[in-house]
């Protein structure tokens, strides 16, 4: 938290100087408000983050052309804060505004478009609107397949998100297929004891558990646990959760 307060002090000092030295709607002022918003967002102080992001957006609306990527970035940041606050309809509105601008400002398969579709998918996912979430996640994945190398971690993340929707819909064989694609890339893209790998093993274990294939579930849970014990601090809640899952699973067998 100390680093955040230092960053905040530095950005605020910079802003004070800019307010004196620059015209009131100079793009550099917008950048400073945006930086301050980023710090508040990382600190979880969402109402302060929102206030800074909105001030940044106001200036950008005056200083920049109507379809400038900087505006898309502002709408995206505001959407992110609303999503973290659980205000999903506001988040959706901001993310969609960001996407509209990106469609005009960027090439059709730009990675930023994939990010926007993914963000919209996350909101629908949070709202339990699974078919809409699926549609957005799939659009994001299509772009990532074109824009990114075949074993990029962002592709793994897309497969994981789609798998998660199918899991929540109770479509376990489809969930398994996507979780396995996620794992395949994660094994190539990340170090052998990375926490994301534990998460991939855990997800596959959960699917097998729900399908009643307990020995397969156990095997994946144990792989997840092995990594968590290496990658996470002792007594981490995530490790405890996996240990509990294994305990409950063994009672079913």
Automatic annotation (TrEMBL):
Keywords: Cytoplasm, Cytoskeleton, Microtubule, Motor protein, Repeat, TPR repeat
InterPro entries noted in UniProt: TPR-like_helical_dom_sf, TPR_rpt
SMART domains, per the entry: TPR
Highest taxon above the source species: Eukaryota
One cellular component (GO) term of this entry: kinesin complex
Location of the protein in the cell: Cytoplasm, Cytoskeleton
Pfam families: TPR_12
TPR repeats: 30-63, 72-105, 114-147, 156-189, 198-231
Purpose: Kinesin is a microtubule-associated force-producing protein that play a role in organelle transport.
Subunit organization: Oligomeric complex composed of two heavy chains and two light chains.
Family assignment from sequence similarity: Belongs to the kinesin light chain family.
Protein name: Kinesin light chain
Species for this entry: Rotaria sordida
């Amino acid at each position: 938290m100390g680093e955040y307060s230092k960053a905040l002090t530095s950005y605020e000092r910079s802003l004070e100087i800019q307010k004196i030295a620059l015209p009131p709607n100079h793009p550099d002022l917008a950048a400073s408000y945006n930086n301050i918003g980023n710090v508040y967002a990382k600190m979880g102080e969402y109402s302060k983050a929102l206030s800074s992001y909105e001030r940044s957006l106001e200036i950008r609306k005056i200083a920049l052309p109507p379809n400038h990527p900087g505006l898309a970035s502002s709408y995206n940041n505001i959407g992110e804060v609303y999503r973290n606050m659980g205000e999903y309809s506001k988040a959706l509105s901001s993310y969609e505004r960001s996407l509209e601008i990106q469609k005009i400002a960027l090439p059709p398969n730009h990675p930023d478009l994939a990010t926007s579709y993914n963000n919209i998918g996350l909101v629908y996912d949070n709202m339990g609107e699974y078919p809409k979430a699926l549609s957005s996640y799939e659009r994001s994945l299509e772009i990532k397949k074109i824009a990114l190398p075949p074993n990029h971690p962002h592709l793994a993340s897309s497969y994981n998100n789609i798998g998660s929707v199918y899991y929540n819909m109770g479509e376990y064989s489809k969930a398994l297929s996507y979780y396995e694609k996620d794992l395949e890339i994660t094994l190539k893209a990340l170090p052998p004891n990375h926490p994301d790998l534990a998460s991939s093993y855990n997800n596959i274990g959960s699917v097998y558990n729900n399908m009643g294939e307990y020995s397969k579930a156990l095997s994946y849970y144990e792989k997840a646990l092995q990594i968590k014990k290496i990658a996470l601090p002792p007594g981490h809640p995530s490790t405890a959760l996996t240990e509990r899952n294994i305990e409950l699973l063994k009672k079913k067998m």
